[in-house]
């Protein structure tokens, strides 16, 4: 009898463990754990519209700020998921020609190269995850904004559009 009772406990325990292992775990999708504690800034992109339209269209990106050498080196490495309207703003003082690569970056990114006048001068669409190829600004930039791959096309962001900082 004691053997049957022990077997019931063992089977029930194994069933409970199986259910726990097969239940999907909800991931926090707000801030990637690698970026907890980083300073953030709301960035506005003012799109250049044809003269036939009277008002400009505005897009907002909540950007993590990479304003030190260590943060620029880390960037979005090891981040598995980035909220749709989030990104990372790399700050370069003084402005310079920069090169970006996707080492240890697991998500596709669009790279917006921004000059000292806050104008997007170049866009590299859909930089491939884990690619070691260097992506150059070719011209001096003060900022690089990385956002989810495909977002520039979806939102119709183009070279010539302006960046407006909230602070």
Distinctive features:
single chain, 167 residues, alpha+beta, Jelly Rolls, 7-stranded mixed sheet, two-stranded antiparallel ribbon, 3 helices, 19% helix, DUF192 domain-containing protein
Could you explain how this protein is built, in words?
With 167 residues, the chain is of the alpha+beta class. The chain has a single domain (35-165), classed as Jelly Rolls (Sandwich). The protein contains three helices and nine strands, in the order H-E-E-H-E-E-E-E-E-E-H-E. It has helices at residues 2-22, 69-74, 151-155; strands at 40-47, 57-66, 86-96, 99-100, 109-114, 120-127, 135-136, 141-148, 162-165. The strands form two sheets. A seven-stranded mixed sheet has the order 6-5-8-3-2-1-9. Strands 4-7 form a two-stranded antiparallel sheet. Strand 2, helix 2 (69-74) and strand 3 (86-96) form a beta-alpha-beta unit. It is globular.
Mean pLDDT: 82
CATH class: Mainly Beta
| Biggest sheet character | 7 strands, mixed
Number of domains: 1
Q: What fraction, in percent, of the residue positions are helical?
A: 10-25%
The largest sheet has its strands arranged as: 6-5-8-3-2-1-9
Distance between the termini: 74 Å
| SSE arrangement, N to C | HEEHEEEEEEHE
Write out the CATH superfamily name: Protein of unknown function DUF192
Structural class: alpha+beta
Q: Examine the secondary-structure arrangement and name the CATH architecture.
A: Sandwich
**What is the CATH T-level topology?**
Jelly Rolls
Number of strands: 9
Uncertain segments of ≥5 residues (pLDDT<50)? 9-29
Radius of gyration (Å):
22 Å
Query: DSSP strand (E) fraction?
Result: 35-45%
InterPro entries: DUF192, Saro_0823-like_sf
Protein name: DUF192 domain-containing protein
Pfam family, one: DUF192
Organism: marine metagenome
């Amino acid at each position: 009898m004691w053997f049957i009772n022990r077997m019931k406990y063992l089977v029930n325990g194994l069933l409970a463990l199986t259910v726990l292992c097969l239940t999907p775990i909800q991931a926090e999708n707000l801030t990637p754990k690698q970026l907890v504690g980083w300073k953030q800034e709301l960035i506005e992109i003012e799109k250049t519209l044809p003269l036939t339209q009277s008002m400009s269209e505005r897009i907002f990106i909540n950007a993590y700020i990479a304003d030190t050498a260590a943060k620029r080196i880390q960037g979005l490495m090891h981040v598995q998921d980035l909220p749709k309207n989030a990104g990372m703003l790399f700050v370069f003082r003084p402005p310079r020609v920069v090169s970006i690569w996707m080492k240890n970056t697991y998500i596709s990114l669009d790279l917006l190269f921004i000059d000292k006048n806050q104008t997007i001068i170049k866009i590299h669409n859909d930089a491939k995850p884990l690619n070691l190829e260097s992506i150059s600004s070719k011209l001096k930039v003060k900022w690089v904004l990385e956002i989810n791959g495909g977002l520039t096309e979806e939102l119709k962001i183009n070279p010539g559009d302006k960046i407006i900082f909230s602070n």
